[in-house]
């Protein structure tokens, strides 16, 4: 008996929900949807030089059940033939969009965002530009990067409106993050998408290589101190004349280095400007090597006339 009452309650509840939906979905609602925007059939040898958005936002009004069918169905697309735009201003307006978007009867386009899109053309141009990697790296404790990030290829061919392409000096890769890295990285990454007028990039993907090694520290002793910019009639004697450097880097890279791979330099202008009797040297390590510390921190000096 209780089981039969349970079924009756469930059935009644479902019928109530159905009736509520039937009434509610007949009411008018407003919804906002995004639709990809494409300008088709651009004349050969020409390219769009204005920033045409990849998507346009549509504010729609209609009965709930019609809007529900739209939202659950295939996505909207707005394809505008270039020849359909009015010569002279070439502006996409809400009227062109209403004509080109396929909507069920009873659904009305209230507005578009943006409300107008300017489509101006320029001659097509192509050139080769270097790619700058946009990569964030975090390493596992005890590991680090050795050498620069390598991109293969390191440049791409861009094609677009001449006035746009002429101003581009470099291109960036898409933003990519690698975390907890403890081994060399080798992956495919995309080039960044254009934020303004459309620019085609060939190839659209690049191979990235990052040399990652276990890190260690090593002491390099007996580094001679150089002086730069000394007048011909002066010579400088440093006390002490050599330094010791503690360097950090990849284990295999450190193993192959010698003291001669480092440079310790003091600028003569710093000596002229000094009032303490000591100067701070500049230490130049090989690429990919970090100087942790050097001893002594500062150097005493004697300046005398050259004999």
Helix-strand layout with pairing:
Elements: H1 2-24, E1 28-40, E2 46-48, E3 55-63, H2 64-72, E4 78-81, E5 91-92, H3 94-100, E6 108-113, E7 117-118, E8 121-132, E9 135-139, E10 143-145, E11 150-152, E12 155-161, H4 162-165, E13 171-172, E14 176-181, E15 185-190, E16 200-202, E17 205-210, E18 212-228, E19 234-239, E20 242-250, H5 251-255, E21 263-267, H6 268-273, E22 278-279, E23 282-284, E24 290-295, E25 299-305
Parallel strand pairs: 1-4, 8-13, 9-14, 18-21
Antiparallel strand pairs: 1-3, 2-8, 3-6, 5-7, 8-12, 10-18, 11-17, 12-16, 15-17, 18-20, 19-25, 20-24, 21-23, 22-25
Key structural traits:
RNA Polymerase Alpha Subunit, Chain A, domain 2, 5-stranded mixed beta sheet, 6-stranded mixed beta sheet, 3 domains, elongated, 25 strands, alpha+beta, 48% strand, 307 residues, 6 helices
